[in-house]
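Lab notebook, bench 4. Still working through the backlog of constructs that have no structural model yet. Next entry is a single chain of 493 residues. Request: give me the structure tokens for it.
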Amino acid sequence: MEWWRVGLALGLPWLAGVLWLRALWRDAPAGIWPMALGYGGVMGLLAVTLLLRVQVAVGLPLNFAGPIAVLTLLALAGGWLAWRRLWRDSDAGSNGIHWRGQELWRPALFVVLLLWLGWRLANLAQEIWWQPLYPWDAWTTWTVRPRVWSEWHQLVPFVDPRRWLADTTGSVYTIDAWTYPYTVPLLALWPTLAYGAWNETAANLPWLGAALALGLGFYGQARLWGVAPLMALVFTWLLLSLPLLDTHVALAGYADLWLATAFGLAVIAFFQWARDGDRRQGWLALLLALVCPSIKLEGAVWLLLFLPALLAARLRGWWLLALAGMALALGWVWWLTGGVEFAIPGLGEFRLTPALIQVPYLGRFALGYRGSWDPVVMNFLVLANWHLLGYLMLLTVGVAVIAAIRRGTARWQRAGLVFVVTSLLALFVLFFLTDAQHWAEQYTSINRVFLEFVPAFLFWVLIVFHPSPFATHPALSRGEEQGGPRGSEYPPV
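Model written out:
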């Protein structure tokens, strides 16, 4: 009975998210159902963490019954809305996978890859089911709080060591990472509330859901882009077969997989919006991007990476060059003047100087070139953590730069290239100009942090080498530069 409740706790929010998201598309473009399953699953599970926070905020103890009742109502409302918008009045035909007129090897290879992925996910599920909580960060950071909350049935506060030592009530706890966000611990807590007691297998199951949602969302968005079914599945297979990503599923407990899923799907939706101006994709990108800081602290920094890509999507030609020149000039002035320092009441002191970066909650980082390229070369070009992704990225960056030099570059191409370049620059600053160089030298966080960018990078590789549907539709291509048509208006592929 306990596991039936766990299945309901994970399946019902997924169903509610899928139904509400699917109702946004009245038509049935290729890939819409996988996309809705992926994005809806992530947003549904993240919504549970919000319901748990609300439950505590109104003074109720943490339990399974309250959120599941709200989720049931949301699923029923989403089902009614989807039925009304899609099946009762819809005249949109199905635009799924069609193999008529194609060689037999394509559907055969599609089935083989699909079975391969299914077998891989089944093996990862067995690892989660049989293996007790294992990762070091789960012991010390991410799963300590849900274990305590599961026993107390309330969000017992975790405070700094000084306050913990001064407390005489025994009602507060402490860990080294006491300032870390609550979203990932709440994701681990939710299925244990359904189970009725602390259970490590139940706490780890959402990590399998994150990988499944990431794969479905990636494949669905590739099909919406116009990529053929087989090629979309090949790149989904490339993503879900990456050794380090699979490790974060099998050794569930780290937050990096959740940040990679939310951030990656946000960037992919942003690329879709940059291409055709579909507001639905824009809202998906915005909502998932805003969730990132609540998953890990660096999510707040990665959120800023959308800004230059957004400007690249909105501006072109001399305006874009002028803005880049202004940014370089301001950077030079910042360097000459010694940086800036200011304080915000309630947050703390901000310092951004050529020698120091200090941001409340993120930490204090001394700046100065001290990194080494050896760990980068070894991790991304020699070792098997990423297969051949490093070489593929180098090739794609070169192709994209050459394409960007030509006249008439589409705004999604500019936005994608700017996003990738600024992301790589941010990683360079982190691992070459701060004390985080030790994480690179130890072969630890250099891979975990890069994992957070991998889904977005791999999708960018796919669309760089895939011809855009707008290339054969001049009218739509012109409209794309002026804001673009709605996503449902471009010809189905």
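Notes after review: The CA atoms of residues 4 and 62 lie 19 Å apart. The chain has two domains: 2-254, 308-339+367-487. Flag for follow-up if needed.
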